[in-house]
Design brief:
With about 325 residues, the chain is α+β, with helices and mostly antiparallel strands. The chain has 2 domains: about 140 residues, PAS domain (Beta-Lactamase, 2-Layer Sandwich), CATH 3.30.450; about 160 residues, no CATH class. The chain is built from 9 helices and 14 strands. Strands 8-14-13-12-9-10-11 form a 7-stranded antiparallel beta sheet. It is elongated, with a radius of gyration of 28 Å. The two termini are about 30 Å apart.
Length: about 325
């Protein structure tokens, strides 16, 4: 299971534990009012006051037809009475044995927002299923677990690009860019920015001669360095001196080796060549996008361990 899937699973488990008990308590009160619309509305209006994250609550029969109005904290929405929800994604999922289901996320019909629906089975005193208590949640209103943000994996990944580009690969060849003509100066400037001037992330567009960089002092905004900037060492003076970050996963002395490796791939072949690349000091990752539009993501040391011949074969 990927780190992303693990994070989603962990967050869903957190939400299920948080929502199951209050919905079960509400559902236990509904059989006394079933299936009277006004009586159900009254109980649900009281219930939503104690379910602050919910957008709407409502009651459904076993066929997925709504027996109550939509109840929100701001009032009653009567136009939803009698609505057939049987074709909504959450009604097509299998309800677990405990009677509680937290749906997969979907885009809501009304708000066009990423949402979840929780369903709790409603039973009478004899255990016969009467229908469901439904509660809709906008994802932005749901709490996060303390470890909600996942860690980006570091294993090698290859992602296929545009098939139309790959299909015409051997009809094209590398056209010399302004950055190609001035590559050594551009890479020397980038090395200075990474090792001495606080840049920690950069995306290098060799074919269109520009670089986009992010700095530790202002990480939420990027700077675009055009051909003029990448050919003028004075640009370094616009970035204040910063010590090399101790948290960086790429050793300071290896930044130049990585940049030289990118240069070698740019010139390695006239048909299969490096079009763009990125470098991040803190996660230690390098990305490569070739003329065939295929992309590779790997750690810096994996990148340095591969020969030019490997890359031509891996992308051809």
């Amino acid at each position: 299971m990927s780190e992303l899937k693990k994070a989603i699973h962990y967050q869903r488990d957190y939400l299920e534990k948080r929502l199951h008990e209050p919905l079960a308590e509400i559902a236990a009160k509904l059989p006394t009012a079933w299936p009277q619309r006004e009586a159900l509305d009254t109980l649900l209006e009281e219930a939503i006051r104690h379910l602050s994250e919910a957008t709407f609550v409502y009651a459904l029969n076993t066929e997925g037809v709504q027996l109550s109005d939509n109840i929100s904290r701001s009032g009653v929405l009567p136009e939803h009475f009698g609505r057939d929800r049987s074709q909504r994604p959450y009604m097509k999922e299998v309800v677990p044995a405990d009677g509680f289901l937290l749906s997969e996320a979907y885009i809501s019909l009304l708000g066009r927002r990423p949402s979840l629906t929780a369903l709790q089975l409603v039973r009478d005193a004899d255990g016969t299923a009467l229908g469901f208590l439904g509660a809709d949640f906008d994802l932005r209103n749901l709490p996060d677990s303390s470890d909600a943000l996942y860690e980006e994996p570091t294993e090698w990944r290859q992602i296929k690009g545009d098939p139309s580009i790959r299909g015409t690969l051997f009809l094209q060849s590398r056209t010399e860019s302004l950055m190609d003509r001035n590559m050594d100066t551009a890479l020397a400037i980038l090395e200075e920015l990474f090792t001495e001037r606080g840049v920690f992330q950069g995306v290098f567009h060799f074919s269109s001669t520009r670089a986009t960089v992010w700095t530790v002092d202002d990480p939420y905004r990027y700077r675009i360095l055009t051909h003029e900037s990448l050919s003028d060492p004075d640009v370094c003076l616009a970035f204040p001196h910063e010590p090399y970050p101790p948290e960086a996963l790429i050793p300071r002395d290896d930044v130049a080796r990585v940049l030289q490796g990118l240069k070698a791939l740019r010139y390695a072949d006239e048909t299969i060549y490096l079009r763009s690349a990125s470098l991040n000091l803190f996660n230690g990752m390098v990305s490569l996008t070739f003329s065939c539009d295929g992309s590779h993501y790997m750690t810096w040391d994996e990148f340095l361990a591969r020969s030019i011949e490997f890359w031509i074969g891996a992308t051809g």
